[in-house]
Description:
By secondary structure, the protein is of the alpha+beta class. The chain has three domains: 6-46; 53-117, 2-Layer Sandwich (Ribosomal Protein S8, Chain: A, domain 1); 123-295, Phosphate transport system protein phou homolog 2, domain 2 (Methane Monooxygenase Hydroxylase, Chain G, domain 1), CATH 1.20.58. Helix content is 56%, strand content 14%. It has ten helices and eight strands. The strands form three sheets. The protein has a four-stranded mixed beta sheet with strand order 5-6-8-7, with helices on one face. Strands 1-2 form a two-stranded antiparallel ribbon. Strands 3-4 form a two-stranded antiparallel sheet. Strand 1 (6-8) and strand 2 form a beta hairpin. Helix 4 runs antiparallel to helix 6 (163-180) and helix 9 runs antiparallel to helix 10 (272-295). The relative contact order is 0.09. The mean pLDDT is 87.
Amino acid sequence: MERSIIELGGKTKVISLPITWVRANGLTKGSRVSVEQNGNCLMLCTSAPGKKKAKIQVKKGELFLRRYLTMLYIMGYDEIEILFDGKARIERLRERLEELLGYALMDQGEHHVSIRNVAAPMEEESEAMQRRAFTILTNMAKELPDAWQGNDKDALARIAELEPLMDKLTNFCKRVINKVSSAERSHATYSFIILDHLEKMSDQFCHLASHLKDAKVTQRPELRSIMASLGELVAQLERLYFHMDKKALPGFKEKRKQLVAAIEKEFEHCRPKEARILAYCSALAELVMDTELLLVFL
């Protein structure tokens, strides 16, 4: 819809608000709203937005309930009621709630459960959470080749067990982006995708650590060099994300291309157990590339 600008007193510019929006939000004379500039747009919001609520009807044998819960969390919902056709099944839900910061099981009946966000607003913690997620990922990448070389199965196990923590951190940051982001929409979208890449990279490192812990693979220097190069790239990716230096991008790209070439060369004569290692490293190199391409838009 379009509105014409009215001039008051020769200086003040005024536009009228859509009456349907005014009524829907219960606004009257003297009500306060927040106005934020977003490029060539103005975002007009009521000062006290309502809580997002959702209700899910779960059929018998539903396989994706935990996934639905995670997506509602990321989308910014504050209250969720789950209705079951049969007896409520909450064991696996409790496990998933451990990964969703702020969510708690508030009510439980024979055929329903209620979940609510009980945490105080933690939007200011988002950057700290992002830094922690990047730090954990970088440490995983740098510690993994040393743990493998030293045949330190306990260290490899610790790396493999970091997946739930990374999921918790990245899901929280995605939720904040969807719920309160005042950044330009494109900027928020790129940040969201980068967080998704971080989560996927952590998954690959965890799978790789589990494989190295359980499989008997000869520790060839070429394989360790590939993993060490990955660690260096992830560490540089972290630095570029928080302190962008476009002059460093060509060197970063060249190192990534060298890593991909080394992986492809090893694929030509590797053994089956080594092929799995290389497959994880190849997937990680691709995720690093995808993340690098997004950095210039932030």
